[in-house]
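Marked as duplicate of an earlier ticket. Keeping the data here for the record.
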Amino acid sequence: ICHTRTRAHTNPHPYATTLKSTETAPTLLRPSRRSTGREGQMNELVKSLPSPTLPGLHLPSVDTHKGWLFKWTNYLKGYQRRWFVLSNGLLSYYRTQAEMAHTCRGTIPLATAHIEVGDTCHLVLTSGGRSYHLKATSEGECQKWVSALQQAKANATLLMHHSDDSGDEVPVPQEDRTLTQGVLKTLASKLDDLSTCNELIGKHGAALQRSLSELEDLRGSTDSTDKVKAVNERATLFRITSNAMINACRDFVDVAESHSRRWQKALQHEREQRHHLEETIEQLAKQHNSLERAWRENPTSYTGETLSVSQTSCRSQEGDASDENDEAEFFDAMEDSPAFITVTATGNIDYCMSNPLSFSLQDTSGANHMQLRRTRRSRIPDKPNYSLNLWSIMKNCIGKDLSKIPMPVNFNEPLSMLQRLTEDLEYSELLDRAARCDSSLEQMCLVAAFSVSSYSTTVHRTAKPFNPLLGETYELDRLDEYGYRSICEQVSHHPPAAAHHVTSQRGWTLWQHITIDSKFRGKYISVVPLGNIHLQFHSSGNHYVWSKVTSTVHNIIVGKLWIDQSGDIDIVNTTTKDTCRLKFSPYSYFSREVPRKVTGVVEDREGTAHYILSGTWDDKIESAKIVDSSQGCGGSEGKQKTVYQTLPPKLLWKKYPLPENAENMHFFSSLALTLNEPEEGVAPTDSRLRPDQRLMEAGLWDEANSQKQRLEERQRLERKRRAQANQALEEGEYIEGYQPLWFEKRTDETGDNIFIYKGGYWEAKERQDWSQCPQIF
């Protein structure tokens, strides 16, 4: 009716395109004068519709797939239900669908992944050296996932190839920024067009629905012709708007698709740059740490030379002062970061902070060879990959003291417990700084940071140190490098107890008497150090006392071994009565707190808080000075919480990066690598001379186990002989009737009955008189 009673518009809007090949092209109508309002409405619609820009393209297939799959977690929990989302070549998984808004549990890039289909609804994805075992609920569901994953992998691979083939040019930042802004404006404009079309579709769709309802009610009436005309007009408007919506969508897809490859290439370039930058920063940190340690070990050996650390003296990378001295030589730091520096000639060594990879030497006279006195080793033989069933040994040890159970060296690291105690001095410079503090509260902050730093080396060290033999000793002489000397002695075997004494020329003395209580609880091993650590500063006389927290090794039966530290450390300055309580938060899978978190408050003798300490025991500790405090609400047991207002935090301690290849060297730190290094002139009871420990470090584990059994059997016979010879002694006068050689039992000023260094060791070493030492090895 409408085609016979009206004529077609002479200039149909270009959005009025053919929907199907068999469908008549829709036309805009010229209604009678009674329909002037509708004509104006249609003209306004034509004006408001967005104009086309690019020819239409078919929508690309989107590789998006969602659903539940079962993912293998571990032997205890087995397969767990996870929500998987496949999009843009990435397979991400979440615990629940609600987690998609904030927490992604993992992402697998399919471009480089290997997809393997197993039996009974199983499939395995391998990416980056890690395998993901997945299971679907049915064979049909598994096949759908496999098809979607393979298609997504093909698309991701094709996109990567397109990105590689599009050229290697990387636009300059300004042009790239301008281009990106222009594309974003175009996409924003297209989105506005889509929004306009959406509103019009909704409006005219509702009007068309009303007209159809009215036409149904007026069937057979005299007004049916006008109603049919109105329905035809509104249907035409709806078609025009729908076609406009389709073309606007095509335009949006065209613009996005035309720039997607460029964006993908730019994103890949940024990822590569970021990865390269991270590697460079890590390498620079290691080399800077090595150079700093090399200078600190012997700063006095640079006679006639001045080591200056200054940014202003460094040459800029643009070479603005490159012609200042044509005779300057630059030496690149080696990747293995040697612990020595050898230079020729005299003059000034300018260590440039802006370029830690090099240092410059200004030659002013003839050749004068200079080298540090001692070069410490920076590596040990790689750990052999020997397999051993831990459960076959540990199943008979539940509830027992592990110090009384013979264990093969497979569970050890090539260090003794005495050396592990000495390793607490890794960050002795914290005590050097504390000795120079005028404020006892600031000094307390540094002492607290030192107490936390001793745990930083344990985060990957799940192996057990060797139990020292009775009478075994260990010395560490770093007088020239760090200004301290350390001596340890095993003063008891059952229970195992060690005494430790350190004297520093930089203003402090540290001593401790530690007894180790270790129990196996089935799933984990708990190690509880009993005893106090004492620290005294020479100038102020401040005497600090604290104890250690409990160490727990988890996943003894199945899974990967990991270690946690938990408990409280109460540090007390017995001179000023200042206190600090450090809380080591135990790890919890359900906790939202930072893992390995440590917090503390430093208070004076009146109980007033002055500093807040925070950080993690495996990374860093910061302090923040309190400027105000107030009582809040929400405390437990009816107590109010105290809210502190602080200044910005200051870094007290930061962990040194591990040496290169540390994962194959028992995760030893730079200091730990040198602890078992052979040294001349040490006592015959020194841990460095222990044969089983030495053989284990060399990788000869079978020979080490034989030597370990020989030493333990000899120690049992010696203990039995000593017990028979001392039956007349009162029980408990000395442990097993044994008297240590370098330590004696006293009651110190805090009331503790402990073993304290009585002197004589360093004098005996100077004379090389070890006639008193027993032959324990």
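See parent ticket for discussion. Residues 148 and 403 are 56 Å apart (CA to CA).
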